[in-house]
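// run 5 | inverse folding | seed 20
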């Protein structure tokens, strides 16, 4: 399990605060080498979720202490799997697809 601080890109938010803290726990068993798709358990502030939308863009700033090499800033397209959302809970499973073209080496 790795902990990240997830800061939302303010340009992608219509209203409200533009910075939130998340505890992003990576399920290592779901990570496949050589793939750019992972499953995460992301705890989200439900009040920030807008009904009818299942796609958001995030700017994910990764804690440098958790990275062995490379930059610590990436752009992700986070697609929410609605079928995994359970009412009354603030824990969801996501399929996080990394846009390789946005990764700066």
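// decoded
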């Amino acid at each position: 399990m790795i902990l990240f601080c997830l800061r939302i890109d303010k340009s992608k938010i219509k209203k409200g605060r533009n910075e939130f803290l998340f505890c992003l726990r990576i399920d290592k068993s779901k990570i496949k080498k050589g793939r750019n798709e992972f499953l995460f358990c992301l705890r989200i502030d439900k009040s920030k979720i807008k009904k009818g939308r299942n796609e958001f863009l995030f700017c994910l700033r990764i804690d440098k202490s958790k990275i062995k090499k490379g930059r610590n800033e990436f752009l992700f397209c986070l697609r929410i799997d609605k079928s995994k959302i359970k009412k009354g809970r603030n824990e969801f499973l996501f399929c996080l697809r990394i846009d390789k073209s946005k990764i700066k080496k």
